[in-house]
Amino acid sequence: MKLGDIGEFGLIGRIAGKVAGGNGVLIGIGDDAAATEPTPGTVLLATSDMLVEGVHFDLSFTDPFRLGRKSLAVNLSDIAAMGGMPRHLLLSLAIPPGLPVEFLDRFTEGMLALADEFGVTLVGGDTCRSPAGLVISVTLHGEQTPDLVVRRNGARPGDQIFVTGTVGDAALGLELLRQGRRDGWAVERHLDPPPRVRAGLALAGAGLPTAMIDVSDGVAADLGHILELSGVGARIDAGSLPLSPYFREHAPRVCADPALLALTGGEDYELLFSVPAGREAEAASILTGIGVPVTSIGAITTGGPLTVTAADGREIAVSRGGFNHFASDP
Amino acid sequence: MKLGDIGEFGLIGRIAGKVAGGNGVLIGIGDDAAATEPTPGTVLLATSDMLVEGVHFDLSFTDPFRLGRKSLAVNLSDIAAMGGMPRHLLLSLAIPPGLPVEFLDRFTEGMLALADEFGVTLVGGDTCRSPAGLVISVTLHGEQTPDLVVRRNGARPGDQIFVTGTVGDAALGLELLRQGRRDGWAVERHLDPPPRVRAGLALAGAGLPTAMIDVSDGVAADLGHILELSGVGARIDAGSLPLSPYFREHAPRVCADPALLALTGGEDYELLFSVPAGREAEAASILTGIGVPVTSIGAITTGGPLTVTAADGREIAVSRGGFNHFASDP
Predict the structure, then answer these.
(1) CB-closest option in A123, A129, A132 to B133
(2) Could you tell me the sign of the dihedral formed by the alpha carbons of B64, B70, B73, B78, in that order?
(3) What is the pLDDT of residue B330?
């Protein structure tokens, strides 16, 4: 079935029919704007991410269900990095002519399945035609009491630096996708990253992180943001970066420097955070208690921006700039 | 200057440097998410609109400054139609390689100039590369106490129907742009529509409208939305539609049926609303008091969906469907 057959309002109706009520939604899809009830005493957290076909995703690598999940996951990850509770989302789509309605059905099913997992309700958005590829824009709203919101700028010398889960998998997965693989742990991590919402909430609830960010541009670049905004440096040990067994097995076969891939590979959507000295065990205990692995990778310092020490004691040179989205401009 | 020279963070820094503080913003541009303080007792109103090059705008018709204004104006209009006070916005851009930084400077200057007029602060968003044209996605947050929020579904038989300003101008302007004109009242109305925020707030504050919508798809289509959601019909008089002197002079030269253009032409971003019988003078007085012209165009009925009477008493057949964004699908 083609979109032209059902029109914009047909498409919106198809999406709205899948959305449950409740969750503080006074007015959902179908009016000029959505209306939602804030939880008294909280501040509104809001984040937007745009995913563009040919830039952020390749329809020969992924399927619509997982694309829908990932489009929300990257936003959930941002709310998680603030220590917030996600609540409502707006979805805007620019849709190329000829994209089957069934694709969009599976896309919204994927997104709404992940939304359900985290108690998030779709309340609005926009749909229109795209002359070129599919463009997805998601705005996600979350909440937290102001004293528990975690920023990027609070890291202090002596703080210990932690990262949840494992890093480098998503970058390895993208490389494997480019080489033709379509399955396996790393590919799955790239196509359907698990947002660390519960970890972010648990850490914020305990008032533990002095600074937190999600790993979207890579450990080195994202830690760099914390350092810059906090006005501090850091020393991390490349040998301590948490690597999955899959990464340890496959990364050496597809790239010359696996340690560098783990340090600079993006899109893992793990949480990277700093904790005051003396509270490391508390952080580890909280996350272990909810089944989230966590690893200490270094410490905040007064000097430097960032020093990375390799297993053999040498220092690794790492650009702090991260991925330049516009570097391929002519 | 090219975007590749300054990178994503350079661009974000350029935009952030133009944004003032205050307005309940705890965390603005530069963290994982924005954090804003809701006004106690209000609900959050949220709307998103996506503008796609080649679909919603043509860079040979407009300039970046007015494009920036319009990208926000269409969202302000949605908040106005809820009777809300706009407060914070998120801006996401997918930017084609080679678009000059100066274009984006002017674009954000236009958007922020309009934001300032309405006390709105830019708090976040996203920027990325676009393989094809420019894509703009704006999410706007507003507020209102729940009892004063105006929906589309409250129109009742006997209510009088009003529209602010004049209609048909923007559609005429688009036609003139296609014919090569680049100035004049109608072209200006198409490129830089004035959002009716103050009118929406004044009407909502007085508890007057039983239903309200902004005229984005045309009077007939947008009134159709109110009728459908309210479960009522309407009778309007085509001869009473408010037309600008410019429209009266130029429309007959560029289209065969000016009355139909006024009835179905989109993008005027005027407010269309219904008021209980007996309170018409109050509505007129409130809007006249803030300098907003308003015209009664008909009444809500029990029957029909929509009956339009021409000046000569004949009924005009009008499709209620409005513009089908996907109708050109192959």
Answers:
(1) A132
(2) negative
(3) 31
Going B184 to B186 to B192 to B193, the CA torsion angle's sign is: positive
Which CATH number describes the domain made up of B160-316?
A: 3.90.650.10
What integer pLDDT is reported at residue B327 of this predicted model? 52
**Tokens 């010359």 — which residue?**
A256
CATH number of B9-146: 3.30.1330.10
Q: What is the ipTM metric for this complex?
A: 0.95
According to CATH, the superfamily of the domain at A8-148 is PurM-like, N-terminal domain (3.30.1330.10)
Give the closest-approach CA distance of A329 to chain B in angstroms. Answer: 5
Mutate to test the interface with A, among B103, B273, B326, B329 (most CBs of A within 10 A): B326
Contact A48 B90 (CB under 8 A): yes
Phi first, then psi: what are they for B27, rounded to 5°?
A: -135, 120
Render pLDDT for A54-94 as a digit per residue (tens, 0 to 9): 999 999 999 999 999 999 999 999 999 999 999 999 999 99
- The residue ranges of every structural domain in chain A are 8-148, 160-316
The pLDDT tens digits of the residues spanning B110-140 come to 999 999 999 999 999 999 999 989 999 999 9
Burial (CB count within 10 angstroms: exposed 0-12, middle 13-18, buried 19+), residue A63:
middle
pTM, rounded to two decimals: 0.96
Q: Are strands B306-309 and B233-237 parallel, antiparallel or unpaired?
A: parallel
Report whether pLDDT(B141) > 90: yes
Residues whose CB falls within 8 Å of the CB of residue A305, separated by 6 or more in sequence, listed in order: A224, A227, A228, A233, A234, A320
Helices and strands (H and E) in chain A: how many: 10, 13
* 8 Å CB contact of A79 and B35: no
